[in-house]
Model the fold of this input.
Amino acid sequence: MVNEDTIKKRIAALESDIKVMTNTIQEIDAKKQEAIANLNALHGAKQQCESFLKELHNDDQTASAVTGSWCGKLPTVTFPN
Done:
C-alpha cells in the first residue's frame, strides 16, 4: 500500500540517484574537455609537422635553385690559339 512514508523513502532514493547521476555527468564532462584538449594538441602537433615539412621542402628548393644551375657542370673556358 502506498502511504506517505513509502513516498518519502522513494523521494530520498531518487535524490540519491540524482546526485550520483549528476556526479557521473560532471566526470564525463571533465573527460570530454580533456579529450578535446588532447585533440587540439594533436592538431597543433600535426600543423607543426606540416610546417616543418613545408620549410624543409622550401629549403630544398632554395638550395636547388642556388646550386642547381651550375652544380656538376664545369664552365666552358676557351683559350686563344
Q: What stands out?
A: The CA atoms of residues 3 and 9 lie 10 Å apart. Helices lie at 4-67. The longest helix spans residues 4-67.
